[in-house]
Design a protein that fits this description.
Blueprint lengths: L6 E2 L3 H12 L9 E2 L17 E2 L3 E2 L21 H5 L5 H12 L26 H9 L5 H5 L3 H10 L5 H4 L2 H20 L5
Parallel strand pairs: 1-2
Antiparallel strand pairs: 3-4
């Protein structure tokens, strides 16, 4: 590389020629890039396409370009109904399940956002991101979480993809203590400060 220009595929002789040209002040006459018969990253001898197609067999011609097989040999297109019946991808299925579950009877009742929502992050296991999701679901207070029945806990657990974490961390008991007397009650019940 000399300044911003690169010189590729150099032989010792060609390198000496380039150095001599620059020493003589004729560096502008040297063409940068590959110094053999190729264009940038193309192979030596010029660009080439596949010379055979594993699906249709060897191509006929000069070996540099493959001729397409007759259209009759091309696989038939699937009808639109078949395409629609194709199974959904994992993320699409998960999104559809999440959207469908928003209408589930076990979804906890939503509230209108109060002027001062409770700091749900004081519940062990709830961070800023989870708190935001709970807010999106209309869950803003400890009292709401404290009243969750089994079906509601399972719904939220599935919605958040927690795999039982709400039960393991006992969000309901934590919320009951916080709703009853704030951090002081939490310390009294659990023997430690929240979070």
């Amino acid at each position: 590389m000399i300044f911003k220009d690169t010189y590729e595929d150099l032989t010792p002789e060609r390198l000496e020629e380039i150095i001599d040209a620059f020493e003589a002040g004729e560096g502008g006459s040297v063409t940068p890039g590959p110094q053999v018969d190729r264009i940038y990253s193309a192979p030596v001898g010029g660009p080439r396409t596949l010379t055979s197609d594993p699906a249709t067999g060897p191509a006929k011609g000069n070996g540099k370009t493959a001729k397409p097989k007759a259209a009759a040999k091309a696989p038939a297109k699937k009808p639109a109904a078949t395409k629609a019946a194709k199974p959904a991808t994992k993320s699409t299925a998960a999104s559809a399940a999440a959207l469908a579950s928003l209408d589930d009877k076990n979804r906890p009742a939503a509230l209108v956002r109060p002027a001062q929502p409770d700091d749900l992050k004081l519940i062990s296991g709830v961070g800023p991101k989870i708190e935001g999701i709970l807010h999106d679901l209309g869950i803003f207070t400890y009292a709401q979480v404290a009243k969750w029945k089994k079906g509601e806990r399972e719904w939220v657990d599935n919605y958040l993809k927690f795999k039982g974490r709400i039960e393991r961390e006992d969000w309901v008991a934590q919320a009951k203590a916080l709703a009853k007397g704030g951090e002081a009650e939490y310390v009294k019940v659990f023997g430690k400060k929240p979070r």
